[in-house]
Design goal:
Structural class of chain B: alpha/beta
Chains: A alpha/beta, B alpha/beta, C alpha/beta
Strand content of chain B: 15-25%
Strand order of the largest sheet of chain C: 2-1-3-4
Radius of gyration of chain B: 21 Å
CATH topology of chain C: Rossmann fold
Number of helices of chain C: 5
Helix content of chain B: 25-40%
Helix content of chain C: 25-40%
Largest sheet of chain C: 4 strands, parallel
CATH class of chain C: Alpha Beta
Oligomer: heterotrimer
Mean pLDDT of chain C: 92
Strand content of chain C: 15-25%
Order of helices and strands of chain C: HEHEHEHEH
Distance between the termini of chain C: 21 Å
Number of strands of chain B: 11
Strand order of the largest sheet of chain B: 1-9-8-7-6-2-3
């Protein structure tokens, strides 16, 4: 695993020269945030500001979420006349983020030729909730990475605590099969090996081992604390591609806006379905959830089914047709009812 | 103003007595392991050493989903409102102060909101002063403090082995009187110890630029900094939903064959659809306009209209924002 | 004719034995015509079915199916042309993938697989339509009323 400081330094150089040489007019990366265990997305336009970029275990956001809004097509001919040309955007991408970018390219949401992808081979990022929990009743005042890749946190009683990476790494990273960005223009850091496919499958299998009623009960339990804030949807790069979400439509209104468990379950069922074959398992949704719900409960299953039924994983080949935009005459029919 | 104390070891007895008169909510951990005000019995000892709950107590007065009207066979009826009293124990001073802000919106209005008024009337708020502020706290910069009593019926304060309790309202007086047999007289040393703890807590809270915020924000309305500051906003709604003073709502009818209900649900000004007109025009079309409006509302319009900030410095928005946005930084930048 | 027991609580309704309600989305060109043929041929099939005509099975958005269940339907049936025979050439082929995934999703979530079913019925298959409706209604009847996804108003 390449040292984070080295990656950070090369990242700053890459961003500085891209901006200076005007190969991009906007560079999106991460910078220090005001609280520990976090970074904040950074939108750079000046080459001399490249020193603000950071790379560390807290670079958790999937920055691909900002791409669709940068490449929104003009609403009409009048807007098209005065609209500026689409920007050239440089973007820091981890393995999962790169898959999201590729999935957006597959859907023609963003033009490949307007992107410069600075890929970083990622050893797994820290889930801030896990880190905060690990500190028990204490709040962290600061946190950094040590030479071994673990997190050193300064705690409110003045002591320092070491949190081992494996304990606090994000759930999505435990199942990540593509930590080294498949699509990139620059790659920083030695490639990192992905996890085996069965890491995610085990969780799906474990859920499926329950009888139907127990599964439904577990689903209701999981989502009973959902406050319908839509953070999961707003943090998702693929959801960001849709101009209007079905679930916001009012004519007709598909689901109620409240916390009735029927509406909550329908929201998550529909969102998981609409992301089938599009979700790249980055976990941004689960990390955005203010209530700490296992938002990926249903999408894990959809990713697995898409792979098993159609041999497809989104975000791997920019020229691949998205799975639900394609069909084969041999597609499985096992589910069809016969008299 | 009655001031009493109770040994912390007897807190369970105190709460059990309240439970005879209504539902008691006390600090505990929910299914996700997050801090929350949970209905007793908790099955675990009540927490006294904690930061703050994920969800603010506004949910008790302005729930995420509230039925305003029921419809049966085409006729409207008012929904039954819960009659039972509720006791919220462990509300932080920032969240208690937020109720004063919500009161301005829902009680001082003409007519007052009957659903909110009903909840306020049947609920007693026992605030617990803070001795260990979090890095995200800034109550002292918005007219509050770790030992502030605004909005509380009783303000409790942890000492070494006792809980000091000061009644703040007639409801608070009544509550302390009802459990007088459990309470003892505090000593002057107790009061002093309490003051020292509060001062120590105040010293830990870094000040945030809020002076002359109304004027400075007015001057900065067209500043290019708004666009830069709001670029990372995802429009996710977390800040508004968790904020103890945010109160925007939507109303929808859920009907099936003439039967159903009219519900009020939380809404968020950061949502792209929040100001979308039926014509298709949106006066706040990008995160810049929406983020600016959020700060303007809390730190300028609220001062101009209600003489107070619509922010209590609880820091939830800063802790929970998935894009790590921090309004303290933005206020400082915009203010110059 | 019985209604699902969502709105009415009158004694008379309670006294009647529960009958499942199955909402059927039928594609205009094949399945709806097939259902029509069953009618014209006087083939009896259970009256529990409520038919909604759509231009093509490819028109089906799973939101429709969930909406039906939320509104109190005890079961949902979706039927289109046989693959290869779609009036719009490939609508049902695109739909087939969506249906397969959606059925997996529902079952994973704990909804009984018999509640939401998919089939192909051609315009000439009046008998097949009736037989499938018979089967689906019986399966849903055995499951009992839909309690999991229904939204109580």
């Amino acid at each position: 695993m390449t040292d984070s400081h080295e990656i950070e330094s090369r990242l700053r150089q890459a961003a500085e020269s891209l901006l200076r040489e005007k190969k991009v007019n906007l560079f999106i990366g991460y910078e220090k945030a005001s609280l520990p265990f976090r970074t904040a997305p950074l939108f750079l336009t000046a080459p001399k500001e490249a020193g603000r970029l950071v790379w560390n275990p807290f670079c958790t956001a999937n920055l691909a979420v900002y791409l669709p809004r940068l490449f929104k097509a003009p609403a009409d001919a009048r807007e098209a006349k005065t609209a500026p040309p689409p920007p050239k955007v440089g973007l820091v991408v981890k393995g999962c983020d790169a898959r999201s970018v590729v999935a957006l390219i597959q859907e023609r949401q963003v033009p490949r030729e307007n992107l410069v992808l600075v890929g970083i081979a990622c050893p797994g990022i820290v889930d801030r909730r896990k880190a905060e929990r690990a500190l028990g009743d204490h709040a962290a005042l600061g946190a950094g990475e040590d030479a071994k890749g673990n997190v050193r946190a300064v705690v409110d009683d003045g002591t320092e605590v070491t949190l081992h990476r494996e304990r606090i790494v994000a759930d999505a990273c435990l199942e990540c099969r593509a930590p080294t960005p498949l699509l990139h223009d620059v790659l920083i850091g030695a490639p990192v090996e992905g996890k085996q496919a069965d890491a995610a499958r085990r969780r799906v299998a474990e859920f499926e081992s329950k009888p139907l009623d127990a599964r439904w009960a577990r689903l209701q339990e999981t989502f009973s604390a959902c406050i319908r804030c839509n953070a999961c949807r707003q943090a998702c790069p693929l959801c960001a591609g849709c101009k209007t979400c079905l679930l916001d439509q009012t004519r007709p209104r598909w689901i109620g806006a409240g916390t009735d468990i029927s509406d909550v379950a329908t929201y998550h069922l529909l969102r998981a379905f609409h992301l089938a074959g599009r979700c790249t398992e980055c976990g941004a949704c689960a990390r955005a959830c203010p209530m700490g719900l296992d938002v990926r409960l249903l999408s894990r299953k959809m990713s697995q089914e898409v792979e098993d039924l159609y041999g497809y994983r989104p975000g791997e080949a920019a020229d691949a047709t998205p799975v639900l935009s394609a069909f084969s005459l041999d597609d499985s029919q096992d589910f069809i009812t016969e008299p | 103003m009655t001031e009493k104390k109770i040994p912390i070891a007897s807190l369970d007895k105190f709460l059990a007595r309240l439970a005879e008169r209504g539902t008691v909510y006390a600090p505990g951990k929910d299914a996700s392991g997050d801090l929350a005000l949970m209905a007793m019995p908790l099955g675990e000892p009540v927490l006294l050493d904690y930061g703050n709950f994920t969800l603010s107590p506004k949910a008790f007065f302005l729930p995420q989903t509230q039925t305003l009207l029921c419809f049966r066979d085409g006729k409207a009826q008012e929904p039954p409102l819960p009659e039972q009293a509720a006791f919220l124990f462990g509300v932080r001073p920032c969240d208690a102060a937020a109720l004063r802000a919500l009161d301005k919106v829902f009680l001082d209005s003409e007519p007052p909101d009957p659903y909110y008024a009903h909840s306020r009337a049947r609920t007693t708020v026992i605030a617990l002063a803070c001795t260990q502020p979090m890095p995200s706290c800034f109550c002292t910069s918005v007219g509050g403090g770790p030992g502030d009593a605004a909005g509380a019926d009783v303000l409790a304060m942890c000492l070494e082995a006792d809980l000091l309790m000061r009644a703040q309202t007639p409801k608070g007086e009544e509550l302390l009187a009802s459990v007088a047999d459990l309470l003892a007289e505090p000593t002057p040393q107790d009061a002093q110890a309490a003051e020292e703890r509060i001062r120590a807590a105040e010293d830990q809270i870094a000040p945030v630029w809020t002076a002359d915020s109304a004027q400075r924000l007015r001057d900065a309305y067209d500043s290019p900094l708004w666009a830069a500051a709001s670029q990372k906003c995802l429009g996710c709604g977390t800040c508004s939903f968790l904020c103890p003073t945010c109160h925007c709502f939507d109303i929808t009818d859920e009907l099936r064959n003439g039967t159903g209900r009219r519900v009020r649900t939380w809404d968020c000004c950061a949502y792209p659809l929040f100001t979308l007109h039926a014509s298709g025009h949106n006066p706040r079309p990008t995160p810049k306009e929406r983020w600016r409006q959020r700060l303007m509302h809390k730190f300028r319009y609220a001062l101009e209209n209600h003489d107070r900030f619509f922010c209590v410095g609880c820091g939830r928005c800063i802790r929970s924002c998935p894009a790590s946005m921090d309004l303290r930084t933005v206020l400082k930048e915009i203010g110059g | 004719m019985s209604q699902t027991q969502v709105s009415s609580t009158s004694d008379a309704a309670a006294a009647r034995a529960w009958e499942p309600t199955v909402v059927a989305f039928l594609c205009n060109w094949c399945s709806y015509a097939g259902a029509d043929l069953a009618g014209v041929s006087r083939i009896q099939y259970p009256h529990n079915i409520r038919i909604i005509r759509v231009p093509c099975s490819g028109r089906i958005n799973p939101a429709f199916l969930l909406r039906a269940l939320q509104n109190g339907a005890d079961g949902v049936l979706v039927s289109g042309c046989h693959p290869g025979d779609c009036h719009y050439i490939s609508g049902n082929l695109a739909a087939r993938r969506k249906f397969a995934l959606f059925k997996e999703l529902l079952q994973y979530a704990g909804i009984e697989p018999e509640r939401v079913q998919f089939t192909w019925v051609s315009a000439s298959e009046g008998g097949r339509f009736a037989a499938i409706v018979e089967k689906v209604v019986e399966q849903v009847r055995k499951l009992g009323p839909n309690k999991k996804l229904v939204k109580t108003l």
